[in-house]
Write a structure and sequence with these properties.
The complex is a heterodimer of chains A (about 280) and B (about 425). With about 280 residues, chain A is mainly alpha-helical. In chain A, about 75% of the residues lie in helices and about 0% in strands. The chains are: A mainly alpha (about 280), B alpha/beta (about 425). The interface between A and B is medium-sized, with 29 and 31 residues.
Chain lengths: ~280, ~425
Amino acid sequence: MSIYQRLPGYTWLRTQPRARAVWQSLPLILHLTRQDLIERHTGSLLGGAWTFVSPLVNILVFVLVFSSIMGAKLEGFGAEIDQYAYSIYLICGMLAWIAFSNSLGRVTRLFKEHGHLVTKINVSLLSLPLSVLLTETVVYVIGMGFFAGFLLLVDFPLSGYWLLIPLVYLLQCVFVYALGLTLAILAVYLKDIQEVVSVVLQVWFWVTPIVYVLEILPGWVQWGMQFNPAFVLVDAYRSLIMRQQLPDFLPITLFALLAFGLLALGLWLLNRTERDLRDCL
Amino acid sequence: MIHIQRLNKTFKLFHRPADRLKEAITGRTRHESYHALQDITFEVAPGEVLGVLGRNGAGKSTLLKLLNGVLIPDSGDIQIDGRITGLLELGTGFNTELTGEQNITANGLMLGMSRDEIDAKREAIKAFSELGAYIDEPLRTYSSGMTMRLAFSIAIHAEPRCFLVDEALSVGDGYFQQKCMKRIREFKASGGSILFVSHDLNAVKMLCDRALVLEAGRVAFDGDADDAVNHYNRIMARQAEEEEGRQQQRHQGAYGSQAVSVVDGWLAGEKSQSTMLSSGENLHIALKLQAREALDAITVGILIRDRFGQDIFGTNSYQLGQAVSISPGETRYVHVQLKADIAPGKYTVTVGLHSQEHHLEDCYWWHDSYLQFEVAGFQHQIFSGVCRLPMTISTPDTLPPMPRDSLAPGHAETASQRQETP
């Protein structure tokens, strides 16, 4: 008997056909993730190392461009900022946003893109988005690894609050999974959803204070920002990493409620439409 | 063991994709239903091969998809004990960018094998597929036959209890098809249940214990494979008759002076009473002739060709010493009877009316592929090749004396030498 079998609810979960299907497809999910990360690069010279290239380049760009070049410029305008403060602020937000938007976009396109699997193999529709989340998580973890290395280099303190980052990230995953699943189902019926999502993500990025600071916005917008899920997430990471304090309780609780509410909606929607969904894929 | 009870499946047909969403939201019906399968009940016992026959659109693919779990039925019960895999035209979820080797892993996992199982079976899969060094090439470089070989190898090595086979098998070359058939028989002998969907009536007769005929989403026949094939043929024949302008086409396809012509004709096997007969069965061809001019000594000729257009056998009444004479406006009937000692396959009958020995002199009426028939299965003994030649085998105590001029095997060299110096 392994550890997870002792967890409460395990027996109940085993009796749920959907949960069992997800459980049984875990090896496949892991394999798809592996394929996404490593085997996609087979035949290339660097191979699996390519997975590390894009997070590394991201970090380097943010650090070099924004601390040495932009930072100097900003100082010229009289802004008093620490040399790396903006880079750290930016990276906190960017890494989370990249994971968020990439996975949301990909999960939305999932059933369409993996049509060749869904229409040929009895694969659990609930489990497919997990492979996307897993892939993006690995990329995120690599990015955070580089980020931590950079912080150590510039003598920025790493606190115990880092231990809470996985928790916030897990909430983020629940949110993306739930929203993505809902959108993926709708996208099967309405092709436009895919396009809408990519446009909305673009606007969302600029609406959310990721590259700029919250304080430059008018007061009422600042107040409203606590209802922007992306901002709540980004701000939570910043609290943990930069301010070394717990995130604001209310917004993150609301976010968690929203995430689980969406999850319930997505599951309900799939339950209602799965038969029809498989017919029209 | 596959146990299917009262299975129903309808597809909703929408005029516009947005209607589907509108219906989901408003709940008002905006679709037309298409009943793909209605009230299907059958069972495949362990160690049994069940054939499924049916025209295009009869519901065969839908049935396979439901069994495979890719589609979900409206109502009804599907019980399958153990793993179900198959060789399906609908594909197996291969990723064409990955190599054969990587696809073995991916596909194995999709079929529900564990990594240990896959690793244990990997060599056997590779050996069976006979892909050699190609196993390390991306799948997009494979021919369809090679893909099929890999798919079959993985599917059969996944240790299923139930196996689905459809037309995909016919992609392989003869050698590999034989190999697959052998493996399917072994699988059957070991107690597996097989569902065999095919248009190859001969294969259905050879392989299946029982067969279903699906027609318009219902089971039209369930029983002995031979009877199922006959039933299926009757459906097909009816369809052929329904085709409009059939009579007209016949005459359009004919050429000649039309001094005398065939106005109607049919053929049937003596036992089967249909255009599907067993090898060795008597074939009856009936022709109705009508003349515009008075002709004495018309030659009626028939020519049987196989599906490649190769002449298999032909003769005419002149060769047989039976001339037919006819006066203007008169109608005459010709009845031809022959023993169809030919190999299973599809054949056409070309009919010609002409004078004298061949049609090159005075051709009155000639129609290529006027009638069609198919030979499936054997009435008596099986033989190989295109036709049966009467043959006996005996075991005398001593060999009959060898004629002086004939050559025993091993004297081939002297034979060629002899030919060079006549």
